[in-house]
Predict the 3D structure of the following.
Amino acid sequence: MNPLAQQNPHRRFNPLKREWVLVSPHRTQRPWQGQVEKPVAPAALTYDPECYLCPGNVRAGGVRTDRYASTYIFENDFAALKLDAPRFSSDEGGKGLLVAEGESGVCRVICFSPRHDLTLAKMSVEEIRAVVDVWDAQCQELGAREDISYVQVFENRGAMMGASNPHPHGQIWASRSLPNEAVAEQAAQAEYMKVHGCCLLCAYREMEVALGERVVAKNDSFVAVVPFWAVWPFEVMILPVRHVADLESMNSAERDGLAAMLQAVTRTYDEVFETPFPYSMGLHPRPFDREEHPEWHFHAHFYPPLLRSATIRKFMVGFELLGSPQRDITPESAAETLRQAAERPGVR
Ligand code: H2U
Ligand code: ZN
């Protein structure tokens, strides 16, 4: 790392989104008298009769959840997307200012475990592997549809990130059009491959492993780093070692490797402030738009909001909202904090 960058304000380029982030390392000592969140008590019951997602219970929409024993998938009772939504496109006034398009798709919920009190961090690698396999089956099933171009798998974890229920669960939103993030990442990866003749994230992963300063965890098939261009204080990206575009292309050992890496990252997070660490995480497989995507390198993003303790979060406000994202602690120092947390007995 350039020593000037460790002490001085600078901006860093995110080649995956082709955006800049402002880094202000000299500012980490500034006082804080703002909002403090209440710590969240972890869920204690293995079965909660009031929980919409526990086996055998009736959900908010009136449907009963099966008595499932491992993972469980159901159509979201309050889906944001519908398969039968009408197709239309309009440009009121013809000036490209009031443009709308009909959008269709599918929203599903996936319960990771029948146990109400678990989280990915508390599940075994075998149990997380079952979740990985369901994600893959969902991507294959939904991605094969003519009217689907992207399958976005994600998890909102913790009330701070808007999760509606502590029961371990995630969501799958599959849509006719490519969401913004996929559009940006696809264009950037395709352009990089055209100009440099190699994969952006393969080249990036090699450099990060060689440098080591932003690496948080490694196994035979996956690497976790705080990206050079991270926006959130403890943001992490998980990258496969092999150039694979989706879960389907991963062999059994790689799927186990992904499960182990998800466990390592979530356990490490929970150690940082000795609290169940909130985050939004999601998978970025290739688009399922029937095009070849040689440029696309599968990856997962973790975006956690916590900054300084279990109760002090980063806000994306002011300059972040109106100018560019900004961070104080450097990605290198966040990676060091995460590596130290990963050494604690709770993780290993
Ligand atoms: P979170 O990932 O933000 O917790 O959202 C859970 C989803 O579960 C949410 O989209 C759905 C909500 O619509 N849900 C049901 O489909 N049925 C229910 O009974 C409760 C929640
Ligand atoms: Zn539950």
Notes: DSSP finds seven helices and 14 strands in the chain.
